[in-house]
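Researcher: Let's try something more involved. This one mixes different molecule types, so please make sure each is placed in the same coordinate frame as the others.
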Amino acid sequence: MSGIQLERVSKEFPNGFVAVDGISLDVADGEFMALVGPSGCGKTTTLRMVAGLEEATAGTIRIGDRDVTDLPPRKRDVAMVFQSYALYAHMSVRGNIGFGLKMAGMPKAEIASRVDEAASILGMTELLDRKPRELSGGQRQRVAMGRAIVRRPAAFLMDEPLSNLDAKLRVEMRGEITALQRRIETPTLYVTHDQTEAMTMGDRVAILRDGVIEQLGTPGELYESPANMFVASFIGSPAMNLINGRCEMVDGRVTIAIGEARITIPDAVAAAHSELRGFAGREVCVGIRPEDFIDVADPADDDAVDVVVTRSESLGAELFVYFEEFAHARAQAAGAAGGLGNVGSAVDDLEATCRSTMVARLDRDCEVAVGERCRLRIDPTRVYLFDPETTGAIR
Amino acid sequence: MRPTPAANLVRVAGVTLLILWSLGPIVMGVMTSMSTQPETQQVPARWIPEDPTLDNYRALLGGEKISSDDAAADSSQYGRAIVNTALATVVTTAIVLAISVCAGYGFSRTEFKGSKQLLWIVLATMVIPIFTIVVALYKLMAELQLINTFAGLVLVYASSTAPLAIWLFYNYVRDLPPDPEEAALIDGCTRFGAFRRVVLPQMRSGIAALTAIVMLFVWGQFLIPLLLTSTEETKPVTVIITEFIGKYTTNYPLLTAAGILAVIPPAIIALVLNRHIRGMLSAGG
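Model: All components are placed in one shared frame. Result:
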């Protein structure tokens, strides 16, 4: 078996802080796995444990067929790209890329050949004799990548390698890194705090919070079926709107009441959520993605609600409209979350989420003006429902 | 905001005053060193020699014997004293660098049981003034038969300089990013290998600065060698110069020429490594 396997890996620091709490993860051979989460969630610590730069206090780490849990970094056969690139300032680009091979005792001629090959792949042959200080951010990033690929390791580890680049270069390098990884088919663990980066690059994405994996799945699974409110609010940009609502049965059909608005859940959707009928008469947390609002001109559309636009942002191809019409309902949701002592920091996150303004992504042709009313309908097939007590998705 | 002309004037005047204050004694020393002994005793004082001479410098560097009649040392001993000082400075600096680079790196990058307490103990020795321990130090060195030995002098210099050097390096290494070192560990280095191949080259500037700081410190040492050396083979230049002063008469041109020559090496060190010294002293801030 190859790839990277983590079995119930934990990291407790001497001061008692548990940064990683029993994580299990299996990165298949050739797979690109993104670890994403907010600051302090344990993603970098996890990566550093795989690299051997931090000692795991519990669990087993395997790379390829070997148990590397107690091996020093040099014996793990991994290559790592750091956020700061960690280039050796006193060496040329050639020296940087070939350093690992030199340490492995490879003959000079072979080192030169491998370095040239890596430089050619990354399009930086003409930079080989320069020092890192003579390179731009993007070029340094390429050198760091070159240093990693030249060794042909059993696994790639990347710690936010794009976060020091400007937005345009970041998008460019995102494509380059994924293309390179597909080409060399080495299992890769990629840490980022940027959910867009994780979603666009990862074959699968693991979302971490407080040292625990909240959900692991393909980008599509995470987006379409978030396991809980944290994942729902973390994935997607802008984030999913989370509102307090009430589940009711009206004429035998599941209806969600949000303030004055009523959303009748289609029977097929209700049937697919077997737990939903059990919530009849109870509070639920309703998640609506910004793109699932539909601008309706018809004032007679009973399923639509009026909102007052507080802000609008045009991005050219789309229009983001912000409103606070659901403020009352949102405050209730925050209050409900406030009573959940057993879900830890989910409470804080939920309150923070619920107190933000709601947002809808509308067609660029929509005519809306700040301070004016806008009539929006919610796509009933695209409503996400969560249990406010556990914050888990209602399946 | 651009400074007003008045503020500029005050600044220029202040800087000029400071330069005069600092360089004035050196200029006076140079003038005196090129004067004759009678000229230095004229009243009113004569600041610029009538017929400048380099005889005193020649005597000091050429090994000629010039002295006050009742002085304990003469110019022929100066060359040996300079060599003694230079040798003690170079050897002490090498020892202090070796100790402080390793200790500073160790204290800032690794944590072991009692490491913080150990660092505090090392740093605490910096605050003990040398004059409070001279008697004990003399007794200890006598006991170890290290009086009038080069080794004894270097041992005391190194032990009195190392705590400051360790502290400076501790702060300096804390400011260095750990990533390249960790990258080296992943690239196949042992911890010592990463230190030697990646960390040490990163420290070049700090090592240069510390070299200068320790050299300047050791070059100017007076009390310790005065206490521990009494032979021509071990006395440094700071002690020999004071011995040019006789009980009743002093050859001031010779004395000042010796002083000016003694200032040249540390001045060169300070000038060449000035940029690194500033960086080192501001590390950890």
